[in-house]
Every structure is written in structure tokens, then in C-alpha cells.
Design goal:
The chain is of the alpha+beta class and 131 residues long. The chain is built from two helices and six strands; from the N terminus they run ββββββαα. 18% of the residues lie in helices and 44% in strands. 6% of the residues are buried.
Length: 131
């Protein structure tokens, strides 16, 4: 099993690194691992959070992986940082136990790379599928 660690990602500018600090490792199935971007704010409620849970499907023929995130939108209102909204994010995958490691790797890497494609990122950011 992978060990909990900090995760470094690029900001939208493509050059600046943001560290998501490992906060809570998973205690097992359905118990989320959690990371947060502590550099985003000194106020905990204003920090982006990402959680990952994993568990068997009902008949235990596959593993479901769910990654969810909450990205707080904080704006200066009358000189005070104010939470004005939150962007919820979600990714889910079901990996059958019958597949090989190579097959699982190929499927997940292609999907991950698809989601990070410029066109797909633009669709997600704007909230509209390509037409």
C-alpha cells in the first residue's frame, strides 16, 4: 500500500508549486486520507482540502477509489477575508480485481492524462463539454 506523504502540484500558472500537506492517513476502507494546502491561508476554513477514500464494491470484485476536494473562494470584503463560496471537486474510479497491474496502470494513466489535457481542463473550468 502507498504510504501517506505530502503532494506537490503546480498552480494554474504551470510554474508555481503548491504543497498539499499530508494531514490524516487512511485508517482503512472507507476512512479518508486527507491533505490540505496550508500555504493557501492561515485560517483552516479557507484552505483547499483533498480527501481520498477506497473500499471494495458490494460483491468485492473491484475497488472503488474516490477523490474529493473542496476549494474555498476567499475574497477581501470590506477589508476582511471572507469565504464567499466553495468549489466541490470529485473523481471516482472502480478498478476490477480481475485486471493485471499493467492493465490498471494503463487505464488509469490514460484517464489521468486525459483529464489534464488543455481542452479537458478548459471544459471543466468553464463548466461546458466541448461542442
Amino acid at each position: 500500500m502507498p504510504q501517506m506523504a505530502n503532494v506537490t502540484v503546480k498552480k494554474a500558472d504551470g510554474t508555481t508549486d503548491i504543497v498539499y500537506t499530508a494531514e490524516v492517513p487512511s485508517a482503512g476502507d472507507s476512512s479518508p486520507a486527507q491533505w490540505s494546502s496550508k500555504s493557501a491561508s492561515t485560517t483552516r476554513a479557507y484552505r483547499p482540502i483533498i480527501r481520498m477514500t477506497t473500499a471494495y464494491n458490494g460483491p468485492k470484485t473491484a475497488r472503488r477509489v474516490s477523490v474529493t476536494g473542496k476549494y474555498p473562494i476567499v475574497r477581501l470584503v470590506s477589508g476582511v477575508d471572507t469565504l464567499v463560496g466553495t468549489i466541490p471537486l470529485e473523481l471516482s474510479a472502480v478498478i476490477p480485481l480481475i485486471v493485471t497491474d499493467v492493465e490498471a496502470s494503463e487505464a488509469t494513466r490514460q484517464f489521468e492524462n486525459f483529464v489534464t489535457n488543455v481542452l479537458i481542463r478548459e471544459c471543466i473550468e468553464q463548466g461546458f463539454a466541448a461542442t
